[in-house]
Design a protein that fits this description.
single chain; alpha+beta; five-stranded mixed sheet; globular; five-stranded antiparallel sheet
Length: about 500
């Protein structure tokens, strides 16, 4: 009987040992896969930062007529061997071979390897960042990036290169992924290796993840030779094996331990989601707190909406304002500061309050916009802004429009809509002087004026004219009031996947 009992106990112990070992191995693999996915997500998040800096460079080049000196001065602070870029250059593509306009930083491998024509020939207006093959020449390998924003018709392309760290040894006490290898493309061949912390192939258990990186894909492979679930989890199978006759008690404790770990993981996941939503809610509240309450203006109805981009938790730089000018006039303002984050929001607030102060002092809108240009410099502040200022004579039904690089407003009357025609000046911060007199026009009866930011009409990979036509088609439909107009326009034009902030403000004469 004792032998049978001993055999039964050993059988139960062996079964429990196998089960706990398998569970620990699965937990290790799942945690390793989770670490790889988190690292891949962090890697993927680098693309918007790289792309935003290159889009700013394209915008500066486009708004300064591709001036080589201004371009080189704008990109110079971004260049270093250990920084985001080792070199940046401005190209024009279109008919014939790509033509280099300006260059800053180290000599570019794209040019020395005679790859410029082959690579730049596939660059086109797109929301994607274009990534080159790995360059093996020079003191260290490089990656090259090219950017041409969606809807761009100027033919200007900004190209940049950065050094890769290459292979490096594993550092003692290195957190998270102890060993990893990063490859360009879906293959894990040595020729596609970008960076590694150990000789390849990596030892131990491995997990991998594909990372979208512009128009290419990176493959991240992570490995760990030790357990990830902690010392206690690793020791559980041996504790169970040594316990013998107490196997059933150990099994119950293990089930409870695993259950609590799962509940803890679920709690942490929910908490992480709550923190993200809370941060995003605070971002939206901060943006809305920086925007004004609309005043009551005799003779017209005014409504405005601000929509934060769906992705991300950084505050944007879009704004609107309404400034009454006596009993017969009012001024509406729509602006958009380049970039995102608290610095963009701070710049937006300073520009909004400064412009409001100039208007309150009685400056004409063209003069007020000119004074605003002295407050921002793209070389010093690393950002610029587009601003639209519209002054309306309510009883006289006349309008004066001044634009610093901003889209001109839409005028709606009797089921028809037309965009104001005229010259659009350079954005605030690019040049310190103005761009001519405001546009003056007479408004038709029963008119509605709609001003907006580019986030309302721009779509990745789509011409801007298509978005403007879409806005006009939606805005001319019959409505009972200007509130209904802006609500319907926002609901139909701003999709669930929009990443850009959007502002719309409408002014309608009362019947």
């Amino acid at each position: 009987m004792s032998l049978l009992f001993a055999a039964a106990t050993l059988a139960v112990t062996g079964a429990l040992f196998w089960l706990t070992s398998s569970s620990n191995a699965r937990t290790d693999h799942r945690l390793l896969q989770q670490e790889v996915q988190q690292a891949a997500s962090a890697l993927s998040n680098q693309v918007p930062s790289v792309q935003a800096q290159m889009v700013d460079a394209v915008e500066v080049a486009r708004n300064t007529h591709a001036n080589p000196a201004i371009f080189a001065r704008f990109v110079h602070p971004k260049l270093s061997t250990s920084g985001p870029f080792a070199s940046m250059s401005l190209w024009r593509i279109g008919h014939g071979a790509p033509h280099e306009i300006a260059s800053a930083g180290l000599p570019q491998a794209l040019v020395t390897d005679h790859r410029a024509a082959a690579f730049l020939s596939r660059v086109h207006p797109s929301k994607e960042l274009f990534v080159t093959q790995l360059f093996q020449g020079g003191p260290a390998p490089r990656l090259g990036y090219a950017e041409m924003p969606p809807g761009d018709t100027s033919g200007l392309v900004v190209y940049a290169e950065r050094f890769l760290p290459g292979a490096r040894p594993v550092k003692k006490g290195e957190p998270s992924l102890g060993q990893f290898a990063l490859y360009l493309g879906h293959r894990t061949a040595r020729s596609d290796l970008l960076e590694t912390t150990a000789p390849t192939p990596l030892p131990g258990a491995k997990a991998s993840a594909a990372v979208p990186f512009g128009d290419r894909t990176l493959t991240l492979v992570g490995a760990r030779t030790s357990g990830l679930a902690g010392t206690l989890s690793t020791s559980v199978p041996w504790v169970v094996l040594g316990a013998g006759i107490l196997g059933s008690v150990a099994d119950a404790a293990l089930v409870e331990y695993v259950t609590r770990r799962r509940r803890l993981a679920e709690h942490l996941a929910r908490r992480n989601e709550e923190l993200y939503l809370s941060q995003r809610r605070l971002t939206v509240e901060l943006q809305e707190a920086l925007l004004p309450e609309l005043p009551e203006v005799d003779g017209v109805e005014i409504a405005a909406r601000y929509l934060a981009g769906v992705a991300g938790t950084e505050v944007g730089g879009d704004w609107y304002d309404v400034v009454p000018r006596g009993e017969k006039r009012c001024v509406i303002v729509v602006g958009d500061v380049s970039g995102r984050g608290l610095r963009a929001a701070a710049t937006m607030a300073s520009l909004r309050f400064a412009l409001r102060a100039y208007l309150a002092e009685g400056y004409e809108i063209g003069d007020a916009l000119g004074k605003l240009r002295t407050l921002l410099d793209v070389d010093r502040d690393r950002r610029f802004a587009t601003v639209l200022v519209v002054e309306i004579d309510i009883p006289g039904r006349r309008m004066w429009v001044a634009s610093a690089g901003h889209l001109l407003p839409l005028v709606i009357s009797r089921g028809q809509g037309d965009y104001v025609r005229g010259a659009v000046g350079t954005p605030v911060g690019v040049v310190p002087h103005g761009d001519g007199e405001p546009i003056e026009m007479e408004l038709p009866d029963a008119a509605t004026v709609v001003a907006f930011s580019d986030g309302l009409v721009e779509r990745p990979g789509e011409l801007l004219d298509v978005g403007l036509a879409r806005l006009r088609d939606v805005a001319v439909a019959p409505v009972s009031g200007v509130d209904e107009l802006v609500d319907r326009t926002v609901s139909e034009l701003v999709g669930d996947d929009s990443n850009d902030d959007a502002v719309i403000i409408g002014v309608r004469w009362r019947s």
